């Protein structure tokens, strides 16, 4: 583009110069009688020489432009080559990352770290289960793995299907482990479930289920097995058995209105049921619109009570250890 512009500019300059020279000839025509033929021939000769000189200059400019075009073209090729090198390096990094995952996953699988260790200190452990890459899990000394935790309302639990499927939050603070992990873990071996609930009065209650299993995404992660055994909080999940998971963008409950919207958060809503542990966090423990963190049997079915802390934990059944 620059080259074309330069050529046009140079051509215009030459045209102006030629026009000017012609006018000069016409202007002087009146006094041609006073000029000798020799003078005129000499003037024309000068103009011709000038034209030749300008022509040579234009040629030089063309050559110069052509040279610069070649340089630009070479640089374009160089850039293209460098782009290819960068792409190659990116592919290599991806490949090395995959290998690294394989290398770290193999010993984890071989060492049986597909669950939280029993008798070890509470904390964060790397767990590897078939079908998933290793991940950080919050474990206690009895081998329970936390799958959901509410403590201070720092995490947003009003999330869509994809978020609940893949999990969200900070495993060291508030989080939900994700339905896909929960499905793979509970599908591969019988699991038990324990739920701890803390209210605004500082009371902690619990519910223990000795069988817990959910289906896959095709089954909309519905609760397949759920067997309440004991606990001071009572069984508020009784109505959630065989119910599918719902979020504000995926209504799988049993009634026309959307429980995930009225109760807030994602859960295995029925009509809508007596439990909702992923509801909105109310720091004062009061939920006037029934959208808080509920466990009906723990609070006399008073749904203005919103719990201040929850922890859901699973582990493979002890008899299988
Ligand atoms: Ca509905």
From TrEMBL:
InterPro entries per record: Fibrinogen-like_C (IPR036056), Fibrinogen_a/b/g_C_1 (IPR014716), Fibrinogen_a/b/g_C_dom (IPR002181), Fibrinogen_C-term_domain (IPR050373), Fibrinogen_CS (IPR020837)
Keywords assigned by UniProt, alphabetized: Disulfide bond, Signal
Keyword Disulfide bond: yes
Keyword Disulfide bond attributed: yes
This protein's GO CC annotations: extracellular space
Position of the signal peptide: 1-21
Fibrinogen C-terminal domain location: 107-318
Name of this protein: Fibroleukin-like
